[in-house]
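Narrative summary of target 7.
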Amino acid sequence: MPEPQSFPLGRLRWPVQIVQRVQVPDPNSTSVVETPMPVATVRADVQPVGALTFWGAAGGNEQVDTPITHRIFMRWQNSLPNAYAITRSTLLPDGTTRTETFRVRRIREIDGRKRFVIVECEEEKNV
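Modeled conformation, tokenized:
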């Protein structure tokens, strides 16, 4: 898929939260407790990648090393390291909330103007 030269703002319809993963030792065991700390809430367009994109990207070897399941389009973020995650909460018809967590893998800027970015992510949790 060619890179868009412009990005329609109307596509940024999902409120997502950028969270930083903070890991601290568990005082009761030898494990690590991970706590998400909210950094920002922004509007984004969350798109799953297709099977051809998933298996055919970069000759196949890029997806094996760091799989990408979703692309998230949002306004420019100065710093979004791969220690961060993006969460999206959706209210379902039965009144429950589904929360999806996406691990940031790579960031690409759209059109080289520092206005929008494509965040390539791997879906971690769908609760």
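The helical segments are 51-56, 61-65.
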